[in-house]
């Protein structure tokens, strides 16, 4: 590290000469003026150098701030890409699992699992690009039916989970039934000439349970819906379901 005395060695010398000159009452006026001129010359140089260093420092600070903003944007972009499905922009499998497990530490959680009926036929008949558009249109339809607190996750090619934090079983059944009715009421813009339906499985998880239990119950209910002919909503009979529960009675009657 450079010694401060070495850095300003010349200036210290000039100042010392000026100090000695000021103390010498016999020094001629011309010599005093010469010493004063040297002090002024070096002072002017210091001001110029200080301004140059300050300007360089300001430029460096602005560049650092710009780079920091870029890094923050890049970090946010990388985090988004790591947690979201690139096609639909909903949460990917690992991200929705983390959200569900986190929600289960706070309260009971309702889960809707849906699978597009006969999606392979759509891909085979209309091509995968159309199939992708159908998936995106379905997600858009789902979003319109959900409360702000809900989260959608893509857990498979045409399979999606809907997380409803702190929701009652009745709430989940109403939302699933609304989406189901909406798909049957009107076609998706991506495939206006053909009806696209889905099968739904609904479950409710107790606080401090886990994703595997909750998802397993919803998956079993989804299997029931498919076994009954698809295009319907089913509730897992043994999971948080009581005979006096109206939502359970409606689901089990289907």
Automatic annotation (TrEMBL):
Its cofactor is Mg(2+). SMART domains: GGDEF. It holds the Pfam family GGDEF. It catalyses: 2 GTP = 3',3'-c-di-GMP + 2 diphosphate. It comes from the Bacteria. Coiled coil: none annotated. Pathway: Purine metabolism; 3',5'-cyclic di-GMP biosynthesis. Its EC number is 2.7.7.65. GO terms for molecular function: diguanylate cyclase activity; GTP binding. Residues 107-238 form the GGDEF domain. Keywords: GTP-binding, Nucleotide-binding, Nucleotidyltransferase, Transferase. NCBIfam families: GGDEF. This is diguanylate cyclase. It comes from Phytobacter massiliensis. The lineage of its organism: Bacteria, Pseudomonadati, Pseudomonadota, Gammaproteobacteria, Enterobacterales. The gene is ydaM.
